[in-house]
Amino acid sequence: MVSNREPYTHVREGGEIRVVRNAGGLTVALDSVSQALGGVWVAHGNGNADRATVDRHGRIACPPEAPAYTLRRVWLSREDHARYYSGFSNGALWPLCHIVYVRPRFRLEEWQRYREINQRFAEAVLAEVADQPAFVFIQDYHLALAARTLKERRPDLEVALFWHIPWPNPEVFRILPWRDELLEGMLANDMIAFHIRAHALNFLDNVAAALEARVDHEQLAVHRGGSRTWVRHFPIGVNTDEIAPMAESEEARVAERAIRSHLGLEGCRVGLGVDRLDYTKGIPERLEALERFFEKYPEWIGRFCFIQIGVPSRIELKEYRDVLLRTRALAQRINQRFPRPGGPTVHLLETNLDFRDLVAYYRMADLCAVTSLHDGMNLVAKEYLAATPDLDGALVLSPFTGAARELERAWIASPYDREGMADVYHGALTEPEGSRRERMAALRETVLRHNIFDWAIEVFDTVQRLTLRTPGIDPLEAHGG
Q1: Domain span at residue 30?
Q2: What is the Cα–Cα distance from 351 to 311, expressed in whole angstroms?
Q3: Among candidates 102, 98, 52, 104, which has minimal Cα distance to 75?
Q4: Against a cut of 0.70, is the pTM above it?
Q5: 109 partner at 20 to 30 Å CA-CA among 242, 279, 359, 438?
Q6: What pLDDT is attached to residue 393?
Q7: 146 lies in the same domain as 119
């Protein structure tokens, strides 16, 4: 497994080192797969105590309480982070692929550093693999070029890339100055996968428009220079086997009561948003709809509260700072306009919670709002459903998420339609109990029926079926898995 973000971070607090299981939906899901399969996970170590906890090769066993695989950390300097991560990955590729009308920024020095860091990740993988056969599973847009180095050095390796964010049409993507080189680097993979079919087809259209290659739309494959790359789509799931028992545990019940008491939520219906403070997540739009909800349905004033968990993200970029400031201003304005005797109407929690702490919030929420302006999948929606075994809840979901393709019974509402979203909030909160539980049961069944392990099996079975694996090597048992 290869990704920019690590599943576990070590941080110094009060003279002690504490381990944090990162709560991001993707890392939580992939951590479950890695625990089941073993192998090595190569990722950027960015915790302030990460270096103090690894061996001389940058390795540490994970998870700490019951080791099942090895985490190999890659070290980046501040300049590396600024140019590779904040720069090209999130200043160029992220806005380019998410069509939310934020202009991408293209700088040669950031592109050059992106290439260098991709090579550094590939070198770390090669060091772990040594001379053994392996299946290497690369995650996301930060590492689009890593496969090229891997294949140049070890053409026998089987390599796949999962692109977790949207892929735009050729008219949008053509503005990238290094479009051809990026596509060529990605085609070094044996398979490239997306969450939904539309993004896979967009990728094929981009290759057809940019490169001299034979694009087979029927077989979903690209033939170029004597090699073939398959393109597929696999909607990712969550670890329902872990989340559901967590939500029903006594620890979660105690935590929920403590949260209700601390935030003064007794006698109040509770709405929840869980996001990075990112302009693609539709957080300001969600709160503007909430403000309109109270204007249109004043009977809910004092009876409905909203908790927005906002994980600080990429604050070195102005666009992200603007989202943070706008979210704070909206929360303050709603609290001033619609005061509540027990405490604030909107609780904005700017924090990165351990996933085990997050489950109590999911369990408590009468309504969860996922209002992304554009999203490859969005696992918050699925985590919420998995963590609501009592079926007493409601999911408000943007049609611009990959999850909306599967969760059709959710309350679908466009974040661009303030009036419509306000009405959906009201409809979700006033739906009769029987209908509400039946709707939640259907949604939850969809999530339970296709969890993270089903996703992993489908990916690896496809690798085998397409004869991608190294002769005699099962990807599930490969050292680099």
Answers
A1: 8-73
A2: 5
A3: 52
A4: yes
A5: 279
A6: 97
A7: yes
